Amino acid sequence: MSRSSATTLVGIGASPGIAIGRCWTIERRRVRTPKRRLTPEEVEGELARLRTSLEISDVQLAEVRGKVEEAQVPGSAEHTAIIDMHRMMLKDEMLVLEAQRQIREERLNAEWAVKRATRKIKNAFHEQADDYFKERRADVDFVGERIIKNLLGQAPDVEDVPPEGVIVVAHDLSPADTALLLHEHKVAAFVTDAGAKTSHTAIVARALEVPAVVGVGRVTAVAERGDWIVVDGARGLVVINPSPGERAGYEAAREKQLAGEQALLATRDLPARTLDDLTVRLAGNIEFAEEVPSLLAHGGEAVGLYRTEFLFMGRSDLPGEEEHYQNYRRILEALAPRPVTIRTFDLGGDKLPAGMRVTAENPALGLRAIRYCLRQPDMFRAQLRALLRASVHGNLRVMFPMISGVAELRAAKHALRQAADELRAEGVPFRQVPVGIMVELPSAAMIADRLAAECDFFSIGTNDLIQYTIGIDRQDKDVAYLYKPLHLAVLRLLKLICDAGRAAGVPVSMCGEMAGEPVNALVLLGLGVSELSMNGPSIPLVKRVVRAARAEEGRALVDRLLALTTADDIEHEVQAEMARRFPGLLDGDDEGPEPAGQG
Question: What's the CATH architecture for 280-581?
Answer without folding.
Answer: Alpha-Beta Barrel (3.20)
